[in-house]
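Table S2 (text version). Query chain:
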Amino acid sequence: MTLRRRFTLFTIFWLIFILILFNIFVYFFVIKITTRSEETVLDNKLAIILDNKRMQEINSLDDPDLLTEFYNINEMIRIITPNGQVINQLGGDEELLALPTDYRLTHNTGVNSYAGKRVLYLKEPIYDEMKVVAMIEIVRKLNVLDSYLQVLVGALAVTSMGAVLFAIFGTFWFTSRLTAPIQHMVQTMREIDRSGKLRQIDLGGREESAELQQLVRAFNQMIDRLDRTFEKQKRFVADASHELKTPLTVISSYANMLKRWGRDDEKVRDEAVLAISNEAIRLQNLTKSMLMLAEAEQEDWLKLERFDIVKMIDELARMMHTTFHRTIRVHSEPVGVMMNADKDKIRQLMVILLDNAIKYSKESIDIHITTTKNAIRIDVEDKGIGIPEQEIPHLFERFYRVDGARARTTGGVGLGLSIAKRIVELHDGNIDVFSKPNQGTAIALQFPKKNH
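Corresponding structure-token output:
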């Protein structure tokens, strides 16, 4: 069932339910008010009758002319003795005259149904020196009120039907406007699925509700993000193809040379074997880095634990000093700094940064570890060749290498800093680069402190 139909049915159901309750309330309220009004009229008439001087004379209670001046159409007035005998009666309605007598010693009023019609009665005892000698009864048919009630019921039914019809068309029109952007989104999605081209929703200047505008904006933002993601993927595939093409071309060329004539020339053979080996290693490193980037997109890539970041960096600095024979100085607070993160990934991050510092500088490297109330900061500084200012915004792009490093003498594949940035982002941290050509480079890492 469509959203429009559901909303329409839901609205109509509740409207009908509310109208039924409202009509029932109005119907019974009108009955109560009109009946009370008729009771007041009968009370006033009874008071007038009892104030009549002739009613004070017990011997005149059976006088036929006693009640004549108080008679009204659709009424019946009678006087009943304690033994149930009617001694005086006035009325022209046979149905009222046929009503059975019911003697009461106290004031009594109410509404009865007789022959399918409502009848209002009022009974009052007649006293003679504090003694009840008879009872006067006034009975009136409520034909006029019942006819008014029938008109009221008809009016309520007509207005309710009109309200329901108006609500059906109004709700259908409203839901049409309400769901138009959603239908537009569905059509856009189908068009995207059919053509394979991403496109955003254009409201065309129409004024929509704030919620629908937020929905459309969220959809357009998602499309924009997908477009950027697909564009990055295309560039990544193109760059990866280009990077893979070079070592494969070198390997293929040297292999063909060896196959044709180079196997008998020892010098050529050694050169080919060395080149193939170097390019194979480069190809292996490139593949490993690409797989690592793909794994970094998974949500469960991190395995968090609590460890001493200073101790871990000290061990890494000593290991790289032994391997590369370069001085790496670690500056930190006297007390160890505990960090809640993925120890292996943070170590890999530091290896990438230190490896770059070693490749592009000849002097010692300094690592500063400081803490604040809410953050841990790590700065890696070298005094190497530096990076031009216009190159810094592109450092973390995949397969990007600064012009001075494009000769491939360092053996990099251009994915290290992309992996480093991804590790920092997964830890909710920030990474900044400060560099000047021929003066060195400083990379600042900042991670939030987490207790668990």
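Notes on Table S2: The two ends are 47 Å apart (CA to CA). The longest strand covers residues 117-127.
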